[in-house]
Amino acid sequence: MEEQEKIELVGQITDYVNQFSCNPKEFVKQMSMEHRTLQQSFTRLVFQWLEHCASPDYRYDGRNESTHQISKEVIDAFSKFKEDQLPAHWQGVKPSEFLPLI
Predict the structure, then answer these.
(1) What is the pLDDT of residues 23-44, one digit of tens each?
(2) Which residues of 46-84 are buried (b: 16+ CB within 10 A; e: fewer)?
(3) pTM higher than 0.90 for the full model?
(4) I need a labelling partner for 60 at 20 to 30 A (CA). Which of 36, 69, 72, 96 fits?
């Protein structure tokens, strides 16, 4: 995908979430009808976004501070789950890296 196409895609997504008619339930319904591999890839993308938002590099202020905080909690919870439930070789693996490629 070309850089310009990526910029346009991000613009379409932000336009979608920036309108009162944004319907997350309908989006989820439609996404759940996509191919299972595409659903896995989308989930990996969502985890990468949460990892970024949880990082110290994420720039936030009062408008998106909750995004930073909840992202940190999700990533921390995943790390604790891995420590308790998974073999040692999975330690330190990010959630987005944990999902296998198919």
Answers:
(1) 999 999 999 999 999 999 999 9
(2) ebeebbebbeeeeeeeeeeeeebeebbebbeebeeebee
(3) no
(4) 96
